[in-house]
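[audit] Reproducing an earlier prediction to check determinism. Same input, same settings, fresh worker. If the tokens differ from the archived copy the diff job will pick it up downstream; this log only records the rerun itself.
[audit] input (227 residues):
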Amino acid sequence: MILQHYLWKDGTEMQNSFSGLLRSLAYQALSQSAEEATTDAILAAFDTNAFLAAFANTPRRKYDYEWSIEDLERLLVTLLKHYPQPVCIFIDGLDELHKYDDSWKLARLIKDVSEIEHVKLCVSSRAETAFESTFRGFPTLRVQDVTLIDAVLEKAEGIFQWVVVVMKDINAGIRNGIGLNGLLSLLEKYPRDFDDYYLDMWERLSGGLINDKQKAAKYLQQAILSQ
């Protein structure tokens, strides 16, 4: 089963709220479960009694606004836990939530759902404290990292030693707080040819990107040894 939701801050309440996200995912899960229940194997594997028992004491709801955030969370998580097949959930734009406080609730929900063995999630967001803190240690991929890596590989033209040498300066730039645009500009200044790189490096010993003779000598030694 595949579920998806795209948050949009300038959209309707259903598009930019935590409640809307929960309703959307729960509706998709219930709809797909109903469709797939026509297969005997799915119906037999789904523990209907356990699912209904979890809501035995839940009052009957007549209107949508009567469902609290807690009710919706419990509905979604319970359904996912009892679903008998793998589930994949895609959520785009976590930072587009209208209320910042809900970011922590959403982050906690995602972390809880990720602990369900047969459920996998793929989410995207700009950097926000709630998500960076909660998802610390989770596999991540930053767009700027891909952009920089692709640029380095393209310019290296398969020369591994060139990558090693250039990445030393790029890492130094990152430690010094240089942003992505600055790093890309830095990369553009490096000659593609290895020999030209070291010639350029020696010519700029008094300033510029590399201003340390000892460092330059070390790089030159690496180049000689790599021949």
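[audit] rerun output stored. Observation attached for the diff report: Residues 112 and 215 are 49 Å apart (CA to CA).
[audit] end
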